[in-house]
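Let's study a protein:

___
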Amino acid sequence: AAPEISDAEYDALKREMRALEKNAAQAVGDDRSGEWPIYRHRERMLSLEKAYTEAELRTFVEKVASKSGEVLWVVEPKYDGLAISVTYEGGKLVRAVTRGNGEEGDDVTANFWKIAGVPKELPTGAPEVVEVRGEIFMDYAEFARINAERAEAGEEVFAHPRNLAAGTVKSKDAGEVAKRRLSAVFYGLGAWEGAAKQPETQQALHALLKAWGLPGVERVTVVKTDEVWGAVETLGRGRAKLAYPTDGAVVKVDSRVIQDALGVSDEAPRWAVAFKYPPDRVTTRLKAITLQVGRTGVITPVAELEPVKIGGTTVARATLHNADEIARRDLRVGDYVFVEKAGEIIPAITGVDVERRGEGVAVFVFSEKCQVCDTGLVREGAVVRCPNGKCVAQVKRRIEFFATPAGVGIKGLGPALIERLVESGKIKGVADVYKLTREDVPERVLAEIERSRTAELERFLAGLGVGKKRAAELMAKQRDLRAMADELGEDARALVALGMNPQSLREKK
């Protein structure tokens, strides 16, 4: 779930594709990954027709009104997540399936069970079989928590809560799924089998879903045809205060009798439409592109911008990911660029205002040498790397990572203090942290360093940048850090030379 272009760019391409498809067979999206069991929906799971302007939305609702007379409409926030269909049989939750291609999707029941707030059983009186339709998403607070942890650990942060939610639902790592708090919301029906009476309106459906204990849509507005646009505008103005990501408003005919009469097309119901809000976008000048060196030597280009306000905050920097991203967008220092907030959180450059490009604006040339240690850079696919493990920038980042909660957890040993210690020559590698004295660092930091000596092997491995899978493989064969040191490199060997030899929790037990 790592898109390469913005939502707005994707929507524009999709609209162009559909214009080309008018005289050909229709095509729909497909979220099946090929890594999960496939399950066929009892009732087809449709998408929604989209409207991007006030005129398009008015045309849709007026067309429905001309066929059905005056109707009531329900306006709901369009949650920005992964569509899901959950089946209850005999009142018990038995299956959760993604939309897939509309006919069948990925059976992600194993991961869906970990989502809190979704009842495993429906109350007495529910139909014998029912498919409830909704969305899996991640709220802003959880997204911020996860990104804060990753930033502190020196890892790349996620760009959008929707992408993270979708990636988590499809993850094969049960531990990661359990640690990330996903949410669900329900707003529709698929198959319904049994004698229980179906709700007659969309309003009644919302009430029924909540009565069953399912998390429902928080904000539902009922309006007449000439009030639809006003309700959509009002919802749009209040989106910034919502605790969860939205990218539009869904407008539905309230009466299910009228819904049935209007029917469905190959892809979408004729009684509902999704209005997509335009992204917050500003234009500002690209002042410079700086190249940051990470702990593994990977070079990350960062755009330095003329400060500009977007979405209530001032933006002065934006990640450019890699050299290919710069080339693909033809970004040049001095350009005026379009900046959006991905998921209304992280600033991203989405394009260049080429018409404002000056004659002297040159193509950006990625440096051939590390700007910190002057070592020749190497390219590995889209990744550019400094191969010098002794590069001062890499040393700083490695020590920062080692000291984070994801590593051995040395409170107070932050970037500013590490910067001073490395620049003064007091530390040249991770092991040198354990040589520091009262003259070098405050007493409280020294106490934290001493405490970290007793951390388990798992924490040392994480701090040295060893991934969970690799760490598990090593600990299955070796008992302690000394036995692994040769495989782990210079930092590990230096720690062992100091007498550090933590054991795994498994060995201690």
